[in-house]
Amino acid sequence: MVNFHIMTLFPEMVLEGLHTSILGRAVKQGHIAIEAVNIRDYTQDKHGKVDDYTYGGGAGMLMQAQPVFDAYQSIVDCIGQYKRKRVIYVSPQGKTFHQKMAQELAREEELVFLCGHYEGIDERVLEEIVTDEISLGDYVLTGGELAAMVMVDAIARLVPEVLHNKESAVTESFCDGLLEYPQYSRPEVWHDKRVPAVLLSGNHAKVDAWRLEQSLLRTKERRPDLYERYQESVKKS
Fold first, then answer.
1. Are strands 61-63 and 51-53 parallel, antiparallel or unpaired?
2. What pLDDT digit, counting tens, does each position of 8-53 carry?
3. Strand, helix or coil for residue 144
């Protein structure tokens, strides 16, 4: 089981997005747990402020260290000071998130996500609590919530029993370094387009060979960088 703790200024946004569909079912069944910790609840400012001007000038406001740290400490108090935990700051300056990272994090028991806003978060609290800085890609969002939700979704579906079909998590894009092959459902003919005959043959060996061929072709065409990496790994093995 993985426990997800999301530190945010918008807990409703996070919980509404992550307590639906497959993840919502997994929460109810006890395979994962998702909580949102409202950073604003821990500010010492009587007006509820969590941000202030940056030293040295510059545009925008910065989230202050104190409410972030106290929100984090509330999580530590609940799960235990010495229990292993990964604290992920969702930031465009971090390492780019990918499937192998999701697989690695799915083996953890306690994952804390810190969602920034405005111009970011006071560096001192990041140095104090963050173990990993992770980015979705080379672009900037208005806050870390959407990125955190994407990561939680990608990680949670790899936790045992979250997906009903256990093969789903190991036969899709990126799991073996390739993009996933094309897939088809009923009817056999739709808009004059037929399902490839090999998929109707009942010959599993031929189906597997066709799927691998299609994955290779699709990866070479759409993601040549992945294709080259895959070819290198095959040579080494």
1. antiparallel
2. 999 999 999 999 999 999 999 999 999 999 999 999 999 999 999 9
3. coil
- pTM of full prediction above 0.85: yes
Query: 6: helix, coil or strand?
Result: strand
Query: What SS3 class is residue 33?
Result: strand
Structural contact between residues 2 and 108, judged by C-beta atoms closer than 8 angstroms = yes
Neighbours of 87 (CB within 10 A): 21
What is the rounded average pLDDT for all residues in the chain? Answer: 93
Q: At what angle do helices 204-222 and 224-236 cross, to 10 degrees?
A: 120
Q: How many CA atoms lie within 13 A of 131 on its CB side?
A: 10
DSSP 8-state assignment for residue 109? S
Query: pLDDT tens-digit profile of 69-101?
Result: 999 999 999 999 899 999 999 999 999 999 999
Q: Are 179 and 222 in contact (CB under 8 A)?
A: yes
For tokens 């003919």, the residue is 189
Q: What six digits make up the tokens of 93?
A: 């300056």
